[in-house]
Structure formats: C-alpha cells, structure tokens
What does this fold into?
Amino acid sequence: MSELHFEEDVILLDLDVEKNEQVLEKMGRNLVDLGYVKESFIPAIVEREKEFATGLPTTSVSVAIPHTDAKHVNRKTISVGVLKSPVDFVIMGDDSETTPVQVVFMLAMDEPHSQLTLLQDLMKLFQDESFLQQLIVEKDKRNAKQLIANKLNLYSFKGGES
It folds into this structure.
C-alpha cells in the first residue's frame, strides 16, 4: 500500500465558484497539475458525482466527498476545498434534494479499500461541528493542514488497515 500525501498545495481556501462542477474541475485540475492524478481524473470525478452524489448536510456546514476510481490516481492524497460561498451539491442517497456545501474533501485514493477507510473516518469527523466551523474561517493553509491532519490522524494513515 502507498503512503498518503497531504501537503498545503492540495488545500484550496476561499475557492470562488458558482457551481459544483466548477469546484470539481478546479480541485481536480490542481491535483492534475501537481501530478497526484491523471488527466482522466477530472471527467471521471464529474461523471461520478452526477451518478452518485456526495453532498452531506451536517448540523452546521454541509460537506461533499467526491471521489472516483483508483485507476485515475497516481499518488494517494486528499484535497480540501473551502468555498468562499456555498454551492449546491445533490445529497448522497437522495437525488431529489440538494445541500449548500462549503467544504469539499476530494479523495484521490489509489486502492479501493483505502478509500473506504478514509470515508469512514471522514463520516466521524463531520459530526465535529467545531472542526468544520474552524475550517471555514481558517485563512492560512498551514494551519488548515495541521487542523485536518490532526483530526483525521493523517500522519499515521496508510490506508487499508482495518
């Protein structure tokens, strides 16, 4: 299994977009430019989001966790986008409703089982209202990285362990 890379360059703060497709394209383009994913990642993640929506309402800040097949990934990472203004994402498991998402955790996992482990950890994290509130007001990527890495225990995350 490969190591998860999580650096400040995969964190995008104050992302100024109007539609969820723009979020996916901007975050995906950043990962392509950094070499984390293949060019095919962008259309794949946009298509997957249309078929299997990932918007999740929480008690305070709605989130989305777009991801796609491991075959589009070069190096395992998680990109975090904090949106300047919320944009609507279709709610996971309910194609008729949307939620105004302000934080996006884009997963680029190179093994399907590591994606599942991280998704489970994220679901627990989304119940931490103070974490999400801290993240949306954070203006420094270094502080955001530290906050996320500590909460997700990313420094020890290898993926796939059960």
